[in-house]
Write a structure and sequence with these properties.
Elements (H helix, E strand, L loop, with lengths): L3 E2 L32 H9 L6 E3 L6 H6 L4 E4 L3 H11 L13 H16 L6 H13 L30 H7 L2 E4 L13 E4 L17 H12 L5 E6 L2 H9 L3 E7 L12 E8 L2
Parallel strand pairs: 1-7, 2-3, 2-5, 3-4, 5-6
Antiparallel strand pairs: 6-8, 7-8
Helix pairs in contact: 3-5, 4-5
């Protein structure tokens, strides 16, 4: 199986294009965020800058905020994440008294957030504010839910947290972006869109939402992408079966060393990341 190394591919040379000016940092901490990949993605997207950028698995939205398209379709299966983004559009502000980096306060706010989930009231501005607080204060920016759909990330124990209270500077950027919460197969993707696809990694832990993202879903995603005519870039952990799946499906596959920011055993050695492209 032939797989090119990213460093040998001039199409992904970060010197070919610069990132947009005044790039906003993601408002959330996000495990597995792809901000580090922006210098490689920017020259690919630049050729299609007039198109709508579609992210089926938006997560912390580091890529869309980094590339700053005029139009975007931002989707994620996590309803709390999409509610947070939609509430920013509605003028989200958070009181200073609701942003306290203290263990007992954290668990009280986590309990309140889960109460709203159980009461099916998690599409509100209060829920969005709680989600932001828990994300910034919890362990390593994890977003994890149990089988009942309840948030269960432990306290983070950071010495200092630079919370955001006023999200107005994001609102204008979001003005022509659409935010949806649905399965990727139901998205209305057009041939003149540009896709950046970053699904949950092919690893044991994928409990990013109440429902797991299984190997069947990885195969289902590739089958869906294979039938789309839009130019696309896909990233995933370069496990042997992931690389084989995309290579056999007609994608051009490359690998790159990715920073490993979260590890259960303290291993911080670079991980191998797959970059697959199609229709470029």
């Amino acid at each position: 199986m032939a797989v090119n190394n990213l460093a040998d591919d001039t199409d992904l040379d970060s010197t070919q294009a610069s990132l947009p000016e005044k790039v906003l940092p993601p408002p959330l901490k996000w495990a597995g965020g792809k901000r580090w990949l922006l210098p490689s993605l920017a020259p690919l997207f630049e050729r299609y800058r007039g198109r709508r950028l579609v992210e089926p698995f938006a997560g912390g939205m580091a890529v869309t905020l980094g590339l700053l398209p005029e139009r975007a379709l931002i989707n994620d299966v996590n309803p709390h994440l999409i509610n947070f983004y939609n509430q920013i559009l509605q003028g989200l502000h958070i009181a200073e008294s609701d942003l306290v980096n203290e263990r007992d306060f954290y668990f009280s706010r986590r309990a309140r957030f889960n109460t709203l989930i159980e009461a099916k009231q998690s599409n509100t501005m209060e829920s969005a504010a709680l989600f932001y607080y828990l994300n910034r204060t919890g362990f390593n920016g994890l977003c994890r839910f149990n089988s009942h759909g309840l948030f269960n990330v432990p306290f983070g124990r950071y010495k200092t947290i630079n919370y955001i209270r006023d999200f107005t500077h994001y609102t204008s950027r979001f003005a022509r972006w659409s935010f949806t919460c649905q399965d990727f197969e139901t998205l209305d993707v057009h041939p003149d869109d540009f896709l950046y696809v970053d699904p949950p990694y092919d690893v044991q832990f994928t409990k990013y939402s109440k429902e797991d993202f299984t190997w069947h879903d990885q195969e289902r995603l590739v089958a869906w992408l294979r039938n789309l005519a839009a130019p696309m870039v896909v990233s995933n952990q370069a496990t042997e079966r992931i690389v084989e799946l995309y290579t056999k499906s007609g994608f051009t596959v490359r690998t790159v060393s990715a920073p490993r920011r979260i590890s259960c055993n303290g291993d911080r050695e670079p991980a191998s990341e797959m970059i697959a492209t199609k229709n470029l």
